[in-house]
Amino acid sequence: MNKLICFIFLIFVFSCKNIDQSNEDNIIKTETIESKSVKIIEPKKENIVYKPDIDWQENFGLTHDIDKDSIWKKPVRFYVDNPNCDKTAIGFYFGKFRPRDTPETSKVLQLAVSDDTNLRPFYRWILNKTIEIQDGALGEFTGVPARKYTEKFPNEFFEYMDIDPSGEKYSNWYNSILYSGSYEDDDIKKSEVIRQNLIKTMKSNCKNCNQKMNKRIEKFALDCFPESEK
Questions:
Q1: Residue 167 confidence (pLDDT) above 50
Q2: What is the C-alpha to C-alpha distance for residues 113 and 183, in angstroms, rounded to an integer?
């Protein structure tokens, strides 16, 4: 019996200690709600641990070490240490900027067509990763910059596609353009006209284009803007 009493006493003491510790870690306020006094426990700010929202990058294969991670055969440091590198783009790499259906997202995706040959691969990587994770709303933002990139840099585009033998990257890009790559002055009911305009622009910007490249351009344009169903 004495042992039982001692055991109960120890449990009581331990519980009180935990309550005291809990009170030290939190702020206890008394507020009146519907004429009744109610105790509200709030955690102290210094006890709150904030974690960066980088779960959306879980399939990117990043370490966030700029000397270990590489993009287009160069360490990420090469891009982020460039004084001309866009700050939002750097935030994307570190997971601090998550693309959403906002003007800021539109702005950073448009950087893929930058004339800066040193930074363009980094900006293209951001566009590609956004295409990979896009949902319906975000998908509205990727089609136009993807199309503009393919039109302006067709040789680069196909070289970039060729690093993925599975064809998944290629499929992601043309589906993105199919979904939201029409320009404001395009008549979406006339896919043939849009397709021919895309072919014409890509061929005009293609360097040392041969018959094989011309066929790739034509196939790509057909994938982006297929024949309308009659």
A1: yes
A2: 16
Residue type at position 90: I
CA 135, 141, 147, 150 torsion-angle sign: negative
Q: Render the burial of 36-53: b for 16+ CB within 10 Å, e for the rest.
A: eeeeeeeeeeeeeeeeee
- List the structure tokens of 155: 């040789």
| Token pair of 181 as six digits | 């790559």
Contacts 24+ apart (CB under 8 A), 68-74: 69/93, 71/121, 71/122, 71/125, 72/121, 72/122, 72/124, 72/125, 74/121
**pLDDT tens-place string over residues 54-77:** 589 999 999 999 999 999 999 999
- On whether the CB atoms of residues 129 and 60 are closer than 8 A, the answer is yes
Kindly state the helix (H) or strand (E) to which residue 177 belongs, with its residue range. Answer: helix 168-180
Strand partners, 40: 29
